[in-house]
Amino acid sequence: MAKSTYCIIGAGLAGINAARHAREAGGEVTVFEQTSKVGGTWVYTDEIGKDRHGLDIHTSMYQGLKTNIPKEIMGFPDFPIGEQEESYVTSQDVLKFIENFTEQFELHKHVKFEHHVIRVTRKLDCEKWEVLVKDLQANSYDSYLFDYILVCNGHFFSPFIPKIPGHETFKGRQMHSHDYRSPAPFAGKNVVVVGGSHSGMDVAIASASIAKQLALSHRCPERLNIFYDEVVQKPEIARIYENEVEFVDGTRQICDVLVYCTGYRTSFPFLSVDCGITVEENHVQPLYKHCINIRHPSMSVIGLPFSVCFTLMVDLQIRFCIKFFSGGKRLPSEAEMTADTKADEEERTRRGFLKRQAHMLSGDLQQRYYDDLARIADIEPLKPVLTKLYTVCVREKKLDIMNYRNNVYRIIDDENFIKVN
């Protein structure tokens, strides 16, 4: 029998993991990566805007970035991140982990670098996926046929910038954190950072000491735990003027630079309509268990859930999908998958989740999701200690944003961990 063919879009953390598991399941694997390296968003570059091929720069890495969860819950189950003493590691450490993983499982030979996926279409006459790809080096196009598709292009590359009244009148610089590399351009400037999540906090803390004045605008009802006196915390922006901004409390701030740390739009520009996938306010549907395309269950979208142990979750999702793709288990019927997905969405509505939180797995949802995937596909589950440690780390970050990355943890067994310092 001919081997099943797998197309994997993206050679970032998810893509190389998918290549490993698809190959180990007996598949013939091809990974398309539009850059020249593995690593995806973890690859740092000083470039912003467009690359030399005229494509959007994919990575959003910035200088000095350290992970916001510890490495103990960031590796793959059988391939941890390094032996560093510290728990919170640098982006270079994570990239080295991805490179080592790629080398260990001899995955480079499956990756077509500088190949940009243009279009994925469902071929109903042969029940396969047609993938149109541009070879960026040769400036030529090729069409491929595959049995299975794993979409691993990530979702931190299409910046979301809110349209605040008056934004078109602003005479200073407006930028998204996707283009932030270092605080150096903010020296002596009046800076307003919009957004109080991970990147907003990092940009504010890194820039406060060199900016003339720095305000952090966010929607949190209480002040965020930042101990820099230089950071002025403000509510949401009501209106933007030529050289200042007005907040919803009526106060104003002079502004030279507006930095939008406002997240990303989930986007799959290469998926044709006949793939059956739609995206509305970052809600990707219809997906069974947040990953398998219900209309065409030989396609999966990897890495959508957030507020999770991301790397471990990605590995679990991939093992889940490939268990079905390889014939190891039979998927439920389309009606059963649809009903399961509807029940999940109804529970989220009862909990008060917004549409943009359709893939959020906060609180008890995270471990339950992991357990469901493992049980349904009959695969190795994730240990409860991982979500326990994640929950503690999120809490400690909220309590001490300036110092939480100094904490060091060690996992003792499947249920327990210790804090070393």
Low-confidence stretches: none
Could you tell me the radius of gyration in angstroms?
22 Å
- Please describe the biggest sheet, giving its number of strands, its sense, and whether it closes into a barrel: 5 strands, parallel
Helix content, binned percent:
10-25%
Q: What pattern of helices and strands is seen along the backbone?
A: EHEHEEEEEEEHEEEEEEEEEEEHHHHEE
State which percent range the strand residues make up: 15-25%
Task: Quote the distance from N terminus to C terminus.
Answer: 56 Å
**Mean pLDDT over the full residue set:** 95
> How many β strands by DSSP?
22
- Principal-axes geometry comes out as globular
Structure notes:
By secondary structure, this protein is of the alpha/beta class. It is built from 7 helices and 22 strands. The strands form 7 sheets. A 5-stranded parallel beta sheet has the order 3-2-1-7-20, with helices on one face. Helix 4 (310-325) packs parallel to helix 6. The protein is globular, with a radius of gyration of 22 Å. The termini are far apart.
